[in-house]
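Researcher: Please generate the 3D structure of the following complex. Treat every line as part of one assembly.
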Amino acid sequence: MNQTEVFEQVVGILRPFVRAPEALEAVASNTTILGDLKVNSARLVDVVLEMEDAFGISITDDEADGVRCVGDAVSLVLAKR
Amino acid sequence: MKARRVVVTGVGVLAPSAHGIEDFVAALRGMKSGVRHQPKLEALGFGCQVAGVPQGVDELRHSYLGEDELMAMNPNMVYAAIAAIDAWEDGGLKRPALDADAPDWESGAILGTGIGGIDTIAEKLAPRVDAGRVGRLGSTMVEQIMSSGNSARVAGLLGLGNQVSTNSSACTTGTEAVIQAFERIRTGRAERMLAGGSEGSSPYIWAGFDGMKVLSRASNHEPARASRPLSASAAGFVPGSGAGVLLLESLESALLRGARIHAEVLSGALSCGGHRGGGSMTAPNPEGVRRCIRAAVDEAGIAAEEVGAINGHLTATFADPHEVRSWSAALALPPERMPWIQSTKSLIGHALGAAGGIECAAAVLQLAHGFVHGTANCEDLHPELARYARRIPGETLDAPDLDVVAKASFGFGDVNGCVIFRRFHPTPSRRSR
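Model: Done. Output below.
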């Protein structure tokens, strides 16, 4: 799975949590999850669980805390695989 | 503090027989049953295999709620949200933008539930905790299992800034919510309150009642005939679900907005029989019931004869004849001079914490539309009620002059609630003159 494919899959995981659909139209690596996509911060726990399931990886709390933008999530997945 | 008049300016109802005012009025008029066979209950070996469940909600919910909201909502919360939004919009109010700066400080909600999110606990929380997988619970458990999950969600959807809470008093819940919201507006603490109740649809919600053997087991293959309040063949209640919500509003606010007024709330009374005098956790103390009804009628400032119809609790258990006698004693009216008596549960089953909300909606809509729906399945009237036979219509009656409806709910814990609705007259009732 290359970077583009991981990016697409991460965006797919985020999609139902996004409260700013217009920001999703122009999503890029530096799009922030809380600020731009307006995902409720409480829901980051669910995003991490879905990423673990989707990519077959385990993400620690510290690693999850380091994810700010979509690109951070993609890098984390690529580093774990 | 000067008591203010309180009116109903919006109605939202998601019932087993219909969704929305127009369809619900038609369903009541046509005595449409919302009770259906439930294959899941049969598969699980329930004694009662029928129930009232709102239809089409899987599709409907997407037109009311976003994906991120639905991920954190069980049926109880979805039902409450749909009925609350409907009541709000029926009242001529708009849903505010999610990023609006300030809430509406003058609007609140009291939305009750009897059992709450036990389906979420049973299906998701308990299995994962027992398997040592707390880390897999995600973020959405608490808001679905906290008792106030239904009202809390509605507060966010509608930007409510006044009191927002969930009451719970078993099967009195929805009616109690209406009475508490009425009091809040009457005493000037809010201008608008969404009030009512909701209950989800789940074997986990109904199992305890089936285990008590208080549910109907006799008509599993005739669902529409299973809920038989007031009949000689009443064999327990049929579980129901859904939500009923009224938008209550101060008369001043309603007039200022030019809102359409469905009815006025004249009074409401709450009591408990204290598990004394024949009352218990599961049976009503008749004196408690009578005091509650009497207090509501007295506070309304009306004569007992002015009550045109009673929307009773009337669940199809042993208590129905006792309830009717209590109404007669409380109103001090002999059987032949009693108001019309009806049971909405004969059509939709007993929606537990939602029952009072849905049935208050039924009471208000019958006043506004001038009819009294018939009670189904009581063609074999209970022999102890023979003297009341003429006051218990088996078919729907046109009642263009219907002016006052008394609605009562009674619940486990020996709790009672009675609310008096009147068609809106610009001239004040005696109480507020």
